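Teaching assistant's notes for section 4

Start the section by putting this record on the projector. Ask students to predict, before seeing the second block, whether Inosine triphosphate pyrophosphatase will look compact or extended. Collect guesses on the board.
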Amino acid sequence: MAPKQLNFITGNKNKLIEVEAILGDTVDLQSKSIDLVEIQGTIEEISADKCRRAAEAVQGPVLVEDTCLCFNALKELPGPYIKWFLQALGLEGLNAMLAGFPDKSAQAVCTFAYSEGPGHEPIIFQGRTDGKIVPARGPTNFGWDPIFEYEGKTYAEMDKAEKNKISHRFRALEKLKTWLKSEV
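Reveal the predicted structure now:
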């Protein structure tokens, strides 16, 4: 049975705004910022582990999100470690990582994990959007959005409504919405 209220574990206000805009009134979303340890592993392993830890921390239903940027030339790296690569290298450094490769294609990947609460196995909802890595264009206030281009525009150049119709986050949340509706 789908929860009426769900704790979305994030400290990122931009992610919260996007998730609320895409989910609409599907579920009553409550935001909680909890500093969770993140293991190393695959996208799915990291998301499931983070979800288990969050469910224990809040003692109730939780939704966690993990966003990745996967460079195809680098066999999907930096992947789930994009946050650390971006902090260390900046947008120009991420571009420089692909300087020696003709393939600039990439995937934006968003993985949501839901758990009913402690002891319940997380359910994974993943969305992927294919694009390419380009020199930064547009506002630089939301992570790597300025360097990920989809059909001629970077995420940063798109208005929020446009991005929320095609993004990796949208694709993952559409799966979550379908599941939530089927569980009611």
